[in-house]
Automatic annotation (TrEMBL):
One Pfam family recorded for the sequence: Orn_Arg_deC_N
Organism field: Nonomuraea purpurea
Protein name (Swiss-Prot/TrEMBL): Type III PLP-dependent enzyme
Coiled coil: none
InterPro entries membership: Ala_racemase/Decarboxylase_C, De-COase2_C, De-COase2_N, Orn/DAP/Arg_de-COase, Orn_de-COase, PLP-binding_barrel
Orn/DAP/Arg decarboxylase 2 C-terminal domain ranges (all copies): 22-332
Cofactor: pyridoxal 5'-phosphate
Entry superkingdom: Bacteria
Orn/DAP/Arg decarboxylase 2 N-terminal domain ranges (all copies): 27-241
Assigned keywords, A-Z: Pyridoxal phosphate
Amino acid sequence: MIPARVQDAALRLPSAPAYLYDLPGLDEHVASVRRALGAVELYYAVKANPDAELLRVLAGHVDGFEVSSRGEHAHVTALFPDRPVALGGPGKTDAELRLPHHRIHVESPNELRRLRATGLEADVLLRLNPDLPVAGAALTMSGPFGMDEAGAAECLPLFDERVRLRGLHTHLASGLDAGQLLGLARTLLDNGHEEVNLGGGMAVSYAEPEARFDWTAYGSGLEALRRGRTLRVEPGRALTAYCGYYVTTVVDVKRVRGEAYAILLGGTHHLRTPATKGHDQPCVVLPTGGGQGVEDEPITLVGQLCTPKDVFSRKIVTSAHIGDTVVFEMAGAYAWNISHHDFLMHPNPAFHYLRS
Ligand SMILES: *Cc1c(COP(=O)(O)O)cnc(C)c1O
């Protein structure tokens, strides 16, 4: 369901393709997440979408920002010089290890040794990657992320008053529901640490846009486990996915060996999410064209790229005509900023922001 204000704005855009961000929608959503989390701290994982307009809305609700590179750090600290920043990410350079932070999430014993060698003060959370079952996850962070129990044990003697151990950080998987995340939290919080960052990864369903992560259940579940400790979460996708829309138009409709296709202006070089995740991007086709087309039948929506991977949605049942407007939903996270913009040298989309 696309809010009426978004649909109206989409129909009034001066050009396509374009991104349209619903800032009041984001504000309302993050406010409700903030309320549900109670005393649990909320950071936003900037890599999901670093757009400054979105960050300004988020800044009204979150306790801090999680950044994963020198670039994100510079971007966020220029916008919000006084906000706490947690610096994470594998493969931090020496320059990154020298960046000011509220917390730094250390990924390995050798990274901790290099952090010590900077001679600077540091407040560290050790990123643990315990061998816990994460059935049902969209993506698991096994492999190079964080350290196992042996790595963490190797780190412990390296702390002192200058490089301080503040607690643990974990981010085990993405695409988990509240019950699954609480199950993991129960195991992860079974330790003596006074501060634990439980990461992000809250589920976002592209197949069922109305099925939202249960923040109320997660917040009250975490409150029951908190017992006076500092708990923090750092979602990305589940905060910003819903506020973004990619709006474009149909340039051609055709049938190839019986299959119907709509070719849209733009493509997955602007909205890579369905290509990387292999899903159908939810959308509506608004009848603004009235040209040649098909009526209520399965049709595959593709972009202008010369590759069979340039598919937004497969065999969705809809009418589609040349000149119609297509509004893709859930394009607010891991969308524009993960896309290969220069492939084929088509023009970039415009960016528009709904403010009220
Ligand atoms: C990507 C990432 C996040 C955010 O994950 P979402 O699935 O977008 O919620 C949080 N923490 C770390 C360490 C990450 O790498």
